[in-house]
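Can't paste images in this forum, so I'm doing it all in text. The chain is below; anyone willing to post the predicted structure tokens underneath?
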Amino acid sequence: MKRLSVLPQQCLLLMTCLLMALEAVPIDIDKTKVKAEGHVEGEKVENPDTGLYYDEYLRQVIDVLETDKHFREKLQTADIEEIKSGKLSRELDLVSHHVRTRLDELKRQEVARLRMLIKAKMDSVQDTGIDHQALLKQFEHLNHQNPDTFEPKDLDMLIKAATSDLENYDKTRHEEFKKYEMMKEHERREYLKTLDEEKRKREESKFEEMKKKHGDHPKVHHPLEKVYDPKNEEDDMVEMEEERLRMREHVMNEVDINKDRLVTLEEFLRATEKKEFLEPDSWETLDQQQLFTEDELKEFENHISQQEDELRKKAEELQKQKEELQRQHDQLQAQKQELQQVVKQMEQKKLQQGSPPAGPGGELKIQPRSLQAVKGHN
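Text version of the structure:
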């Protein structure tokens, strides 16, 4: 079974093949014609960011591997099980010397980058303790015991790490977006509490008007610019990215029949035959859905309140420490001034004792009593 060749890199990454399609391929009205506006034959299309902290290293490794004809052929014919099992990684022993040399260089660069990252983290948390497990996790996508050469184990670890991380990526993004929306609502309600009744009613009216204005759009597939416009006050670009993510998941659920996170040509063609592909979509945008319940919002606000209490306690403790340090500083300054005064008085007293006052004309005035004492001594 031949797989789509437009995104061979995504086969190795086990990424969604239609992410680029949603963002870069405009569809005609009847959904049977693909526009080729601005596309040049052989032009390299920039792949979307995976969101992984080792994304650049991952892309560079794949780009180098695809320059080897043997490995590229194996990659295009490999199925999901061969990739996951590590069978594809063993093909690394058959690639050219130039490719292996370049991979070695990439790995050394990545190890150096991670070492700098870990050192920076260790320096930043030296006063609060070091989470060694979290630091070691930074090496899960390569074999750090051999920092000099790129081996089949490195490719196997890279594939497995990317597979695992990408499977959890969407879930994490959804959770972050949900918190973002709850924070927006929390801040809106807190702001309303600061207003009098008349201003609060005006603000509530404005809020409902903006919701209605944002929801006033036609049924759409994509592009999302029909729903979100950065020039509009009522449109949130963070919500647009969440909408894009949901669309990608929806398309994959409809097209990826065997759920292997890959799209074969057969699966794609079968999807184009469905009634939903040719007719207007009934896609529900985010504004048409309940993203969280009141109970969830209340729990979120309680969590925020706890965090605020902890921060307030820490701030009060730091303020007390600051005041105590200031008190000690003032006390030391007072002691210093007192000591300086004592030293000054002692120096003046010593000067007075060792240097009798001078008489008229600058001559020393010797007291008669002192002269008699001298004669008696002789």
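The chain has 14 helices and no strands. The first helix runs from residue 8 to 13.
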